[in-house]
C-alpha cells in the first residue's frame, strides 16, 4: 500500500458527519453482511464517530450554511485552519476566539472579535432564531471603513 | 480534525464475490482493511471517501482471485498541531489526565501541561487545579466523564509491526500505535464548566 498524499484536503466535521450518515443509510438498505467479522471495525468506528459528532454544533449545519459562513469570513483574513476551527466549534466567547485565532490580540481589535462572535452565532446553527447575513454584512462594511 | 488521504493499494477480490459490482466489492475490501486502524505516520482511518481510479484487474496463476490496483481517498483522523479539540476525561493517573473522544482514546495531558498549580489527589486518584482568587484557593477537580477542551501539542506514532520471536518474548506491554499529547495550560482550556459563566 502506498500513501500518495497524506494531506490531500482538510475536512470539516460536518462533511464527515454527512458522509457517515449517508454510509449508514446505504448499509442499512443493503443489509445482509454488516455483521460479519470483517465489517465489525467499520461498524465500531462509524458508531463512535457519529456519536461524537452528533453532540457537536457541526451536526446541524448544511452545505449552504458552510458556504455562507466562508463568504462572511472572507474580509477577516483568517487562515484556513482558523476558519475550520471556528466552523467546527462555533465559539461563543472572546476567550474561545483567542484560542483558535493565532495572535488575535494583534490581528483583531476587540470590536472585530465581538463582530466575529456575532457572525458565528448568526450564521451557524445552534440558535433557534436565524437572522440572515444582511445585518452582518452592514457591520463588516462599517468595520472595514473604520480599520 | 479529519483529513483526506490519497492512497494506492492492490485489492484482492475472492471469486465468490465476482457477482458483485466491482466498485462495491472494492469499497468493502478497503473498509475491511483500513477502518478503525492506524496507518503509521498518517492517522486513524475512519472510512472510504471515494475511489478515484480503478486500474485493470488481473488474475495470477495459482490464485483464483482478481487483483485490482485502486487509487482512492480515505477519511483519516489526524488533528493538526495546535488544534483545539473537545473530549471527555477517561481517568487520571500519575502520568497525567487521560482523555477520550469516543472513537479515539489515546490522548494524554501530562502534569506539566495542566493549569498550574496542579496537584494529584492520591485518595481519589484525580488531578485538581488549585485556583487562587482574592477570596482564597478553590480546588477544581478533574472528574471522570467531564467534558474537556484541550490543544494538541504533539503526536507520537509507534511502529507496531510484529517483531521476531526473540524480541516478542521480552516485550509484553502493548503500546498504542498513535498517541496525542495535549495541553490545557492556556485561558479557555480545561473543563468546560470552568469557563462557562
From TrEMBL, chain A:
Domain RNA polymerase Rpb4/RPC9 core, first and last residues per copy: 1-127
This protein's record includes keyword Nucleus: yes
Coiled coil feature spans: none
Membrane-topology descriptor: Peripheral membrane protein
Biased composition (Acidic residues): 138-147
Main location: membrane
Gene3D superfamilies: 1.20.1250.40
Region feature Disordered, mapped onto this chain: 125-147
Keywords: Cell membrane, DNA-directed RNA polymerase, Membrane, Nucleus, Transcription
Gene Ontology terms for molecular function: nucleotide binding
SUPFAM superfamilies the record matches: HRDC-like (SSF47819)
Entry-linked SMART domains: RPOL4c
Compartmental location: Cell membrane; Nucleus
Top-level taxon in the UniProt lineage: Eukaryota
Any single Pfam family the record assigns to this protein: RNA_pol_Rpb4
One GO term (biological process): hematopoietic stem cell homeostasis
Family: Belongs to the eukaryotic RPC9 RNA polymerase subunit family.
Quaternary assembly: Component of the RNA polymerase III complex consisting of 17 subunits: a ten-subunit horseshoe-shaped catalytic core composed of POLR3A/RPC1, POLR3B/RPC2, POLR1C/RPAC1, POLR1D/RPAC2, POLR3K/RPC10, POLR2E/RPABC1, POLR2F/RPABC2, POLR2H/RPABC3, POLR2K/RPABC4 and POLR2L/RPABC5; a mobile stalk composed of two subunits POLR3H/RPC8 and CRCP/RPC9, protruding from the core and functioning primarily in transcription initiation; and additional subunits homologous to general transcription factors of the RNA polymerase II machinery, POLR3C/RPC3-POLR3F/RPC6-POLR3G/RPC7 heterotrimer required for transcription initiation and POLR3D/RPC4-POLR3E/RPC5 heterodimer involved in both transcription initiation and termination.
Function, in words: Accessory protein for the calcitonin gene-related peptide (CGRP) receptor. It modulates CGRP responsiveness in a variety of tissues. DNA-dependent RNA polymerase catalyzes the transcription of DNA into RNA using the four ribonucleoside triphosphates as substrates. Specific peripheric component of RNA polymerase III (Pol III) which synthesizes small non-coding RNAs including 5S rRNA, snRNAs, tRNAs and miRNAs from at least 500 distinct genomic loci. With POLR3H/RPC8 forms a mobile stalk that protrudes from Pol III core and functions primarily in transcription initiation. Pol III plays a key role in sensing and limiting infection by intracellular bacteria and DNA viruses.
PANTHER family noted in UniProt: CALCITONIN GENE-RELATED PEPTIDE-RECEPTOR COMPONENT PROTEIN (PTHR15561), DNA-DIRECTED RNA POLYMERASE III SUBUNIT RPC9 (PTHR15561:SF0)
Protein name as it appears in the record: DNA-directed RNA polymerase III subunit RPC9
UniProtKB/TrEMBL annotation, chain B:
Superkingdom classification of source: Eukaryota
SUPFAM superfamilies according to UniProt: N-terminal, heterodimerisation domain of RBP7 (RpoE), Nucleic acid-binding proteins
Pfam families referenced in this protein's UniProt entry, alphabetically: RNA_pol_Rbc25, SHS2_Rpb7-N
GO biological-process terms attached to the record: defense response to virus; innate immune response; transcription initiation at RNA polymerase III promoter
Any one GO molecular function term: DNA-directed RNA polymerase activity
The keyword Nucleus belongs to this UniProt entry's keyword annotation: yes
RNA polymerase Rpb7-like N-terminal domain boundaries: 9-64
Location of this chain's protein in the cell: Nucleus
Keywords, sorted A to Z: Antiviral defense, DNA-directed RNA polymerase, Immunity, Innate immunity, Nucleus, Transcription
Record flagged with keyword Nucleus: yes
Residue ranges of every copy of the RNA polymerase III subunit Rpc25 domain listed in the record: 83-195
Cellular component GO terms held in the UniProt record: RNA polymerase III complex
InterPro entries registered for this protein in UniProt: NA-bd_OB-fold (IPR012340), RNA_pol_III_Rbc25 (IPR013238), RNA_pol_Rpb7-like_N_sf (IPR036898), RNAP_E/RPC8 (IPR004519), Rpb7-like (IPR045113), Rpb7-like_N (IPR005576)
NCBIfam families: rpoE (TIGR00448)
Known partners and oligomeric status: Component of the RNA polymerase III complex consisting of 17 subunits: a ten-subunit horseshoe-shaped catalytic core composed of POLR3A/RPC1, POLR3B/RPC2, POLR1C/RPAC1, POLR1D/RPAC2, POLR3K/RPC10, POLR2E/RPABC1, POLR2F/RPABC2, POLR2H/RPABC3, POLR2K/RPABC4 and POLR2L/RPABC5; a mobile stalk composed of two subunits POLR3H/RPC8 and CRCP/RPC9, protruding from the core and functioning primarily in transcription initiation; and additional subunits homologous to general transcription factors of the RNA polymerase II machinery, POLR3C/RPC3-POLR3F/RPC6-POLR3G/RPC7 heterotrimer required for transcription initiation and POLR3D/RPC4-POLR3E/RPC5 heterodimer involved in both transcription initiation and termination.
Summary of the function given for this chain in its UniProt record: DNA-dependent RNA polymerase catalyzes the transcription of DNA into RNA using the four ribonucleoside triphosphates as substrates. Specific peripheric component of RNA polymerase III (Pol III) which synthesizes small non-coding RNAs including 5S rRNA, snRNAs, tRNAs and miRNAs from at least 500 distinct genomic loci. With CRCP/RPC9 forms a mobile stalk that protrudes from Pol III core and functions primarily in transcription initiation. Pol III plays a key role in sensing and limiting infection by intracellular bacteria and DNA viruses.
Family: Belongs to the eukaryotic RPB7/RPC8 RNA polymerase subunit family.
Protein known as: DNA-directed RNA polymerase subunit
Organism: Cyclopterus lumpus
Encoding gene, per UniProt annotation: polr3h
Amino acid at each position: 500500500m502506498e500513501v500518495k498524499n497524506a494531506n490531500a484536503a482538510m475536512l470539516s466535521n460536518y462533511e464527515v458527519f454527512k458522509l457517515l450518515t449517508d454510509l449508514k443509510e446505504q448499509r442499512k438498505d443493503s443489509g445482509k453482511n454488516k455483521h460479519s467479522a470483517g465489517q465489525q471495525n467499520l461498524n465500531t468506528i462509524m458508531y463512535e464517530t457519529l456519536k461524537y459528532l452528533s453532540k457537536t454544533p457541526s451536526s446541524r449545519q448544511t452545505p449552504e450554511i458552510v458556504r455562507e459562513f466562508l463568504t462572511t469570513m472572507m474580509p477577516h483574513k483568517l487562515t484556513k485552519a482558523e476558519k475550520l476551527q471556528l466552523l467546527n466549534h462555533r465559539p461563543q466567547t472572546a476567550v474561545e476566539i483567542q484560542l483558535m485565532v493565532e495572535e488575535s490580540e494583534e490581528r483583531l481589535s476587540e470590536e472585530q472579535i465581538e463582530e466575529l462572535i456575532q457572525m458565528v452565532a448568526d450564521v451557524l446553527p445552534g440558535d433557534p432564531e436565524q437572522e440572515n447575513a444582511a445585518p452582518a454584512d452592514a457591520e463588516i462594511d462599517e468595520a472595514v471603513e473604520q480599520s | 480534525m479529519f483529513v483526506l488521504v490519497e492512497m494506492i493499494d492492490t485489492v484482492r477480490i475472492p471469486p465468490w464475490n465476482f457477482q458483485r459490482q466491482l466498485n462495491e466489492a472494492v469499497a468493502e475490501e478497503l473498509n475491511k482493511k483500513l477502518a478503525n486502524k492506524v496507518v503509521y505516520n498518517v492517522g486513524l482511518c475512519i472510512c472510504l471517501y471515494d475511489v478515484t481510479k480503478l486500474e485493470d484487474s488481473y488474475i495470477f496463476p495459482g490464485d483464483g482471485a482478481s487483483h485490482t490496483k485502486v487509487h482512492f481517498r480515505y477519511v483519516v483522523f489526524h488533528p493538526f498541531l495546535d488544534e483545539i479539540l473537545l473530549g471527555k476525561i477517561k481517568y487520571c493517573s500519575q502520568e497525567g489526565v487521560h482523555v477520550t473522544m469516543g472513537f479515539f482514546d489515546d490522548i494524554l495531558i501530562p502534569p506539566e501541561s495542566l493549569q498550574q498549580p496542579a496537584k494529584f489527589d492520591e485518595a481519589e486518584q484525580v488531578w485538581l487545579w488549585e485556583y487562587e482568587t482574592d477570596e482564597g484557593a478553590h480546588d477544581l477537580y478533574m472528574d471522570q466523564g467531564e467534558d474537556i477542551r484541550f490543544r494538541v501539542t504533539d503526536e507520537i506514532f509507534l511502529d507496531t509491526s510484529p517483531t521476531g520471536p526473540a524480541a516478542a518474548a521480552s516485550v509484553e506491554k502493548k503500546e498504542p500505535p498513535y498517541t496525542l499529547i495535549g495541553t490545557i495550560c492556556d485561558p479557555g482550556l480545561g473543563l468546560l464548566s470552568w469557563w462557562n459563566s
